[in-house]
Records
---
Amino acid sequence: MQGNHNIYKPIKATVDRVIKESPMIKSFVLIPEKEFFFKTGEFIELTINGYGEAPFTPSSSPLETKKIEVTVMKAGYVTEKIHALKRGDVVGIRGPYGRGYPLDKFYGKEVVILGGGCGFAPIRSLMYNLIAEKEKFKKVTLCYGAKTPDECIYKPFVDELKKIEKFEVLRSVDHADETWEEKEGVVTVLLDDINVNIAESVAVVCGPPVMMKFGTLKLLELGYPEEKIYLSMEKNMSCGLGKCGHCMMGKYYVCKDGPVFTYDEIKDQPDIWI
Amino acid sequence: MKKGFQIHKHSWLKYLTLLTNSHNMFVPVNNNNIIEYEEYSPELNNLSYFAAKPVTPLKAFLLPIKENVVIEREIHNKNIILGVPACDLKALELLDEIYLDPDHTDTVYNFNRENTILIGSDCYEIQEHCHCVSYNINPWPEVNFDLSLSAINDDFIIFSNSEKGEKLVNEMILNFQLTEAGLDILKKLQEKRNSVKKMLEKKNTRLPDYQHTGALIKKSENDKWEEYSKNCVSCGACAVICPTCTCFLLVDRPDFEKVRQTDACQYLGFERIAAGEDPLKKKYMRFRNRYMCKYVWRPEKYKSIACTGCGRCIDTCIGNINKNEIFIQMASL
Ligand SMILES: Cc1cc2nc3c(=O)[nH]c(=O)nc-3n(C[C@H](O)[C@H](O)[C@H](O)COP(=O)(O)OP(=O)(O)OC[C@H]3O[C@@H](n4cnc5c(N)ncnc54)[C@H](O)[C@@H]3O)c2cc1C
Ligand code: SF4
Ligand code: SF4
Ligand code: FES
């Protein structure tokens, strides 16, 4: 990314499809004006023309370069505009930025993934990677939690995942209803049910700050070493390039040095769970 | 001392006028003891090269408060910034590390940098809060300048430090009488410079060693920070005026354009995330953040120092907060 390349200038992408995942979450399939390459866990900055920009981790497969999908929770100023997008609308994208998941460090291991709410977005992208190279992993266990059954996203994807050998999916909701046949409780309760050889395992956590905190504490309690817990951190961001200072977490720029960190790397930095 | 050239003050002024044909030139002027850059014209009679320091830090020329960073740059006349003090030249190191980061080079900053000629100058008068020496910076240009300017009486002494500087020297040689500065005058210059340095050292003896400031800041408790920040109104002036504070916000414009706009961690909401959580929600947290950033985190991350002792944050603070007094107090606890 050197030379005369303007780091702030987005390329254009056209909305191809809008998928309603839950009352507050929609996915958007975008077709960039040129092929777009990213590694799982890296993120993009999505621009609503003349209005604002926000960071998102693509939820699609990194192996797909002609289309890119983002899953967006309605949370405020920019995300509300994103939710109003329709097929044919044009947005801007910059990136990919940051440091994603170090897949090579997962090879030969049992991968335990803890996801909450919209934190499933980067995890789905990671899953596509894991599926594509499934012979390289011993086992993949996804523990996913949402507030209510209605708020569980990627239902068709989860159904597919359950059919794949070596992949296991456990789900919980904070508040179950009569349709819910899986677990009730905060997502960390799922960790009580998993069958994993911790010495041979790595853990990945992505979700809202509280969930990240309690998920990590639980994993530590189970005996995971600090350097085997991979966290995808969320901070306020503007540039995505390690310049504007908005995403500072102690000495780290979450946008450039992260967003994926091991717990070991960040445990001494301030305000990691905010 | 390296090779210097000597030029009479009158010839120098003529040269400046000549330069304005092909450059935009900004020079420090003194209005009621306030030093500030103004566009040069031969009519200016209050030029002030050697009285540290212009209110505006050098960064303002390279990272303007607002700049459209997406549109194509037009080639214009090069800027010359004359009379840049040593502290501001030193501050460029951090700016370069951030903005010329080879992973993501800010081409707009790079453009501004390449189109700017920096003429540094010695400080012969010091201001109340100048404390560059406390950060191991001498009060004369040593790094990051193209040309530097010193004076002994009515003779100016010029050193070149780059290709851009060489070019100017050669131009001067062609048009004016320029002689190589002799040992005698160079010796006088060194004495003059050293006396300013001594003055600064004497003024700042109470300051704890800058290498230890980070540790003092780190161990300060929250209640202390509440006390230190009592008079802070979160105006952000300390950050905006600081030559090494460079945080910004990208603001969107139609046609997918973006404006890079100065921002500061002192403002509420700087780190707020969508869920509403904000690691800097209280005033003392934002106040502390700037100190942690400068004296703990940036030093861990970058090679360059993040405070050059220019004293502008102290001059400017509406709450009369003096970081050096805070450090002295911290060291005494
Ligand atoms: C690396 C990373 C990956 C992410 N991935 C995803 C994902 O896959 N899916 C997902 O749903 N979310 C994701 N998020 C979170 C998402 O980026 C936020 O939800 C989003 O930025 C919220 O923006 P908003 O404007 O809608 O919210 P708001 O709460 O309105 O604003 C968020 C921030 O922007 C500031 N802001 C708001 N308005 C303005 C304005 N007019 N001018 C300047 N600043 C303003 C606010 O101060 C606030 O700090 C990710 C975040 C990060 C850091
Ligand atoms: S200049 Fe003073 S009052 Fe303003 S934000 Fe800085 S410390 Fe606070
Ligand atoms: S922190 Fe204050 S003294 Fe240090 S460089 Fe910034 S403005 Fe100057
Ligand atoms: S988002 Fe700008 S430095 Fe990280």
---
Amino acid sequence: MFINLKNAKKYYGKGESEVRALDGASLELEEGGVYVILGPSGSGKSTLLNMLGGLDSLDDGVLEIGGAKVSGMKDKELVEYRRSDVGFVFQFYNLIPDLTVKENIQVVSDITDKSLSIDEVMEAVDIKKYENHFPSELSGGQQQRVSIARALIKNPKILLCDELTGALDSKSARLVLKFIEEVNKKFHTTIIIITHNEAIAGMADRIIRIKDGQVSSNKENPQKMKADELSL
Amino acid sequence: MTLNKRYTRNFKNNISFYICVCILTILVVILYLDFDAAAVKMNDSLDIFRERFCVEDAQFSVLNEIDDEEIKRLEEKYDILLEKQRYIDYIIEDGNYELRILSVPKKINLYVLSTGDVEKDAPCISVEKGKILLNEGLATGNEIKDGDIIRVDDNEFEFISSFERPDYLFPIKEVTDTYALKAEFGVGLVSDEDFERLADKAKESNKLKEYYVIKYNSDNKNEVRKEINDKFHMLSYLKADTNTRVGTPKREITQTSNLMNVAIIVLVIFISVIIAAVIGRRIKGDRRQIGILIALGYKKKALSRHYAVYGLVSGLAGTLLGVILAFILSDKLIGFLFFKIEPIPTGYNISLVNVVLSVLFPTFVYTFSVYRSARKVMKSDVITMISGRSGRKGTSKLRMEKSSLKASTKYKLRQIIGKPGRSIIVVLGLGIGGMLYSFCLTAIDSMDSYVKHTVDQIGTFNYEYFLKNPELGKPNDGNAILGVSYEVKGREDIMMLLGIDSPDMINFTDPDGNKLDFEKDRFYITSMASLAFDKEKGDTITIVDPITLDEYSITVTDIVKNDSQAAIYCFRENAAEILGFDTGLTGGELPYNVIMSEKALDIDEAKLMKTISKQSLADQINEVKIGMENVTGAIDVFAIIICVAVVYMMVNVLITESTPSVSMLKVLGYRNKEINSIVLNVYHLLVPIALVLSLLLGFFSVKAVFAINVSEYKTYLETLIYPLSILKMSVLIIASYVLSLFLLRGKAGKVDLVESLKDNRE
Ligand SMILES: Nc1ncnc2c1ncn2[C@@H]1O[C@H](COP(=O)(O)OP(=O)(O)O)[C@@H](O)[C@H]1O
Ligand SMILES: [Mg+2]
């Protein structure tokens, strides 16, 4: 298995106020698929994603990705793991405000040796014409495409998307998802999308459900659809 | 209010920032209380000392002694105080210093014990038999302790206490000296009986010196001077203002307190405003929280008050600590400030008004600034505040499309240019800190250069021998000069009129280095005099004979390069003419009273009034330089603290304000080192600018100070700074800069990467 998570635990706080964000979650996923993780708010989706992306470390349990044991990595090793293998897309884009579109992407290509062509990636997500704009001059959908371009420029093994359409209207959302779909095909990137929007699950190879910090189901999607066909 | 729980948490989380604020505030308070307020207080104390202890208005010597009866008559006639004062100079073999035993005055120049207080104690007019008092500089300089025995010739005296007199606060041996070598020369007082015994013996060897001091009460100085000259034939007359020994403390303290009043107040206001701006800035980072609290129904007023407490607490903490330290350090720092003169015995207590002021001012400025910026944040509507979007408009939209610079370089440029307020504070902070240092370095270098070069530029002579009585014709060795001191009309200073036969031992060139012709009936003034009296070629100077009060006006023909002496050169005949010397009586022979020589001459001690060696001019400036070097030690510390603290504070603010970007860079897999190299290094570009600024500020302040001090140093110092000092400056500024970045290196690493992602919605 490409992703192998066993009995993952992550607790926040202590005593009365303890929150069990992940409470024994286990998950196995193969390389190259599109996976959608569904679950109510507060069920631990983001926490799970952060663990997969090496943004935080588990209190207990084992996480292996591509044969590497991510759980137990020190902060320094996590940085290297994020740097080489992981791309992130967040609900609120998180672009660097003082850098232009092109520079936001450059920032990542600067630190990788397997960078794709910046121009090509910008063309692909259709933001080339805004390359010299600052994030604050773009719409939400445009910003999100920049953020995807930024995540992809280093050709990561996994692309982690946290509520990536959460702040977008349905038209922009579809455009973004279409692009994600293409990336998966073209680069064979493993894509994990977190959402509480059931409709998005339509484009997944497998649909994973989370409840109370545990994976409650992990099923193949019998009717996989194209992003175009989703009823967002 | 639950909100108050935020205080401790917030202070704790930003402890290093608030420590910085505290340190700078402490510095502000110390500078104010120990430098500015102290200098002003010293000025007052000196005035009181001079007034209560009746400092002389002038001193003079006469050919015919004025007896007690005459003194009494003159005092009554003119409503003056007149007193004969006497002294004997001794070399103290045991201690390797020179001691001038003064008669204990009863009316003028009264003394106070060093342990006393000039504002409260009654002036002293007697000393116990067998005991001796020494001025404090001499006693401390030679580690003389109470009970020590001082051997003066064959007499033994027990040292019981230090003392100060208002006319010897600047204890120089000759009034022409520039610097008091306190360990090598000092004054002492013994009982009247003991003094008479010493005087009787000294008379035999001509060592007893006498002069008269006078204190006027009405505006009849000229009448008094005239009568005394007519009746007793005045030989010299020296106004206290033009007397370096009496005038220097007043000038020194007034100038220092004026300088401090401007410089320190500017510095204090500047630092307070920087701190206020920075604390205020941090509130903007709380925009979201403020928005949420308002949405929850908190009143804007209550919130503004909540935030104002941050300013209040930082202000109070810093100023109160500052006051305590100022009290502890006051003696040391004031000593530094007035290292050239004797300490004025006064219980220097920092006045309550100043303490209150130094607490209230910064505290108010901080509190107000925080309050104001909280109000400003609250002006935007709640929704934008919560979204965290407001206030971002300020970022620079410098596109730099064509530029091939790296993205991180563009980022830095935009940080600098897009937030000019932040950048200006960095430049000014480094600049002002550096200026303190460059001021000292420039002053020291200028003095050093003077000591090494300028003195030699005066000419080839090395000695000037001043004779007690003029002689006629020419000396066997050396050049004859007729040299007389004149008062300059309308000025406090005196100037020498030097009648010479030829300028062969003088470097007779104009300030540009062109050789000048020396002609009869022409008057040439030195560049130093030109500067001191603000006279140029073609201007007229009126000089006043200090004894007869006769006035002469001369027209300046040319200016001779000489930055060390204020003097007028002319033909010896012209000088004799001005003096009213009748050559008809001497068969055309001209008088001289100074011999200028390249080599040391063997002149009869009895004929000699004093000797000035060119080296001694350099030595005295050298002493000022050494004193300055000592002060520099203290100033360095202030400079470094200001530089480090300001940079630390500003980079701290920079990181806080770039938290979302820092956190994103982390998510993207940037290593801490790489993040530091982007975020911490933003201000690199500003360092050279600050360096140049501080060099210029320092250089021009020194130039201004030298120009004001022409009369005090008796020389005009050319302002310059050596390349080595520029290097030292650069090292100091860069080192403080690097040090503060080093202290902050962990700061970016501490930015939480998950947390800030949630908050940010750019
Ligand atoms: N850094 C944190 N500190 C404390 N509690 C947290 C933290 N991160 C997440 N949680 C808590 O863990 C639970 C799961 O959060 P999250 O993974 O963000 O849920 P989801 O993304 O599914 O909405 C929530 O109750 C949340 O409040
Ligand atoms: Mg979430």
